[in-house]
Specification:
The structure is a homodimer.
Chain A lengths: L3 H15 L8 H28 L3 E3 L8 E3 L4 H18 L1 H7 L7 H8 L7 H27 L3 H4 L2 H5 L1 H10 L4 E3 L2 H7 L5 E3 L2 H20 L6 H21 L8 H27 L8 H18 L3 H7 L1 H14 L12 E3 L4 E3 L2 E3 L6 H12 L5 E8 L2 E10 L3 H9 L4 H31 L7 H7 L2
Antiparallel strand pairs in A: 1-2, 3-4, 5-6, 7-9, 8-9
Chain lengths: 467, 467
């Protein structure tokens, strides 16, 4: 009896996947695959978790009273489930083209293509773009797993996403090759440019590689409390889906390149949401599994994939604002300006079961410039410092003894006071969602002012592609 | 000074890769990448091997006097190197199309395509086929690694290659979809068929999945002595390359589909040979590393990929004759007709450092039918048995006490007597190469008789594609 709801869900997912003549294709199938992915992952995670502990992939949860041993690297399960779902999704993604072109049985459709040359031909370039994205994702999962197994050094692992992104960038190069970016109207006016876009050439590939490096690593850095890695990935996916819907819902945008692009983005994100929610269920406070670097890399690469292949990497970065803030804010400790303890997790207090901001304690006096910087941050409400007044001769000097560690998690605790771990995670996720929602509105209003038009208009991508 | 030859090789590889205007493109680049792959893998294997032991991936070499501890699963290194080489190879594979079509900078080449519709358009379907093959390979490597880590049960791991082959089969379905096979002339004559080919439909996908399951598993079964897994993969790759050259060398075959198909096969196999040779160097007797299931799966899938995407899976299976024999020969033990000891490796004799056939010892009397079968095999020289004559009443009965284990490795020892491990491996590889060479000649002479023509003629594939 307990299995009844699951069997019902399975039936629903199959119905959604197989009812291919629906006007909502391929989104309807992708929802079906999301449900299937959720069920598969939900079955496999508890079934395989003990084997992870057996082969030594486990860690202690330091923010609990009894410091339980918890299986690590479980993110590999939803990641592998996702990959095989996305393989199976291919015929449904391209269903309308299959019916038109390959029903003849055995005839290569490129032959059909040249004869009947209409807009309904099989979109080989879309298929290559899709396959290259999945290849990058799978490479990321493979490298992430190797990282979790061998504990690759920080300065090496930072670049793993760039290696994994190679298929995506190379297929972009051979198959699409657009390296133009639009010039904002105000810059055109100031410098008197006539062109609407500028060709960045090879630099554009450097930019895309940087996006691919940033997304996975920034998720990996904003981590350390139960549910945060998966939670932020779920929030990011929801925000990107909201952005996609802006292009999918207005009927006037049908049959534009922007529609196709955001349709693919939706089809990639919906199943990702399915497998991530199953992982979140087990990773939420009190966590029964840890996700590992594998999951952070995997989810970051999903976002890089949709952003790069869909040409909205700037919008993507808007939704990453909290991650960008966290990275910039971490710089003083990451680059050694301020002493960086081995762990910067918030401090767990066993007595009240709450999380407190953790502190870096300075044994030696800090350089004056850094102390001044810290005092400015404190005045801005961006740092908690413990200081001491010292009277020498005839003046009073302030010496900084401790400061809260430079992470967004600690900062949230500084702002809102001590909280239990699940509440802390929830507040950060709410922050991410609110900032993302504001960015989304801003992006579709201010962008129109800066660039002279917004790409919610049907003219936008046709201008790009005519260049 | 010791590094000089390697630096020289690196320079050679770079020159081969980058000299893209050569008439030998893309084979020349693939040779360059093979050299690069050899060097990379040759550097990474000894550099990473100690870390494999550290995380518990090691095994004891039981066929040595001191039973040394040896790192296991090292096959993941050449496999990952191969994958990333094949990513980087994409622009060189399609170089001639890039120069023609995407030099305009930023224009999608499908647009160019429809206007200039000549034979020189960018081959998107070749790119998708290539990407799907690499995806299947990478999935196989990922699943192989999970198998090596978690020691998946035999009855589950047997089907892992079919799961990994999904991208290959699905892209075959959406993009190519030919499910016809040719009917041999003599069958046509007997049954009075008029068609030259028959459409197998969905059955053809079952057949391709079976090929994908067979190749990796058959390599995994013919294993157990130093160098054999990699050695047979190298021999198979060389045989397939010889078959490819039959189509690449005759000038009359240029610009036929068969030429293009075997060009791609060559480009896939040459870098595989590069990385495999570096692994063979460390895995050859006395082995410094073990390759793991990862490598067997990986190499088997490389062969399945070229066979399936190149439409010569029957020729491929010809070269697998020793593996097919080994599998069929193993059936009595695999399916429990004859007792199967936990290890069927040949027996190592510490005194003379030689390998002897290992035996299955029977505690109970075997069923009469099985004893009779064994005696027939013995008479055919296909089994070594230890028997005992027993006189009951007035007739003499023969009881079988022991028999050599049913593997090709043991059979070779039965045929040629005890040998040292490296010599044994060499003899098996020589056997494989000889049988393959005979098959190759037979395939291009007898096939012409059976099918009415050989596909070394330019008509062959055009007949197929016109159906």
């Amino acid at each position: 009896m307990q299995q009844l709801p699951k069997i019902g869900l399975l039936a629903v997912s199959m119905a959604l996947i197989c009812h291919t003549y629906s006007p909502l294709q391929p989104i309807q199938s992708s929802i079906g695959f999301a449900v299937l992915g959720y069920l598969l992952s939900d079955y496999l995670i508890p079934a395989t978790a003990p084997y992870f502990i057996k082969i030594g992939l486990f860690g202690k949860d330091l923010s609990k009273k009894d410091k339980p041993v918890i299986p690590e690297t479980i993110g590999i399960i939803p990641a592998v489930v996702y990959l095989f779902i996305m393989f199976s999704f291919i015929p449904f993604m391209f269903f309308k083209f299959l019916v038109v072109d390959t029903s003849g049985g055995g005839s290569r459709d490129t032959g059909v293509d040249l004869e009947t040359a209409d807009s309904n031909y099989f979109p080989h370039n879309k298929l290559s773009s899709y396959l290259s994205g999945i290849l990058s994702l799978e490479s990321m999962v493979l490298l992430g797993l190797l990282d979790d197994l061998f504990d690759i050094r920080w300065r090496h692992k930072f670049f793993l996403p760039a290696i994994a992104a190679i298929p995506l960038l190379i297929v972009y190069y051979v198959d699409f090759g657009v390296t133009h970016i639009l010039i904002p109207t105000f810059i055109k006016n100031i410098f008197g440019f006539e062109a609407v876009s500028i060709d960045l050439g090879a630099l554009y590939y450097g930019y895309m590689a940087a996006v691919a490096i940033f997304c996975p690593n920034s998720i990996n850095i904003l981590a350390g409390i139960n549910g945060l890695e998966v939670g932020q990935s779920v929030v990011l996916a929801v925000l990107l889906l909201l952005n996609d819907f802006c292009y999918l819902i207005p009927a006037s945008l049908r049959s534009t390149p922007a529609y196709e692009t955001h349709l693919m983005s939706t089809c990639i994100l919906v199943p990702f949401l399915g497998v991530s929610l199953s992982l979140l269920k087990f990773n939420w406070y009190p966590a029964k599994v840890f996700v590992g670097d594998t999951f952070c890399y995997f989810s970051g690469m999903v976002f890089a994939f949709v952003g790069i292949s869909g040409h909205f990497s700037k919008t993507l970065l808007l939704f990453f604002l909290p991650q960008i803030f966290n990275f910039v804010y971490s710089i003083p400790q990451l680059f050694g300006l301020v002493e960086c303890p081995r762990h910067r997790l918030p401090r767990f207090n066993e007595e009240d079961n709450m999380m407190y901001p953790s502190h870096a304690v300075f044994k030696k006096r800090l350089p004056k410039l850094i102390e001044k910087g810290m005092l400015i941050l404190e005045a801005l409400g961006l740092l908690e410092v413990v200081k001491e007044e010292m009277k020498t001769d005839n003046k009073t000097e302030i010496i900084i003894k401790e400061c809260s560690n430079f992470t967004l998690i600690n900062l949230v605790l500084v702002w809102f006071g001590p909280m239990r771990e699940d509440r802390l995670c929830f507040v950060i996720l709410l922050l991410q969602f609110s900032i993302g929602l504001i960015s989304l509105v801003a992006r579709h209003t201010i962008a129109a002012l800066l660039f002279g038009y917004d790409n919610l208009s049907i003219f936008n991508l046709s201008i790009l592609s005519s260049n």
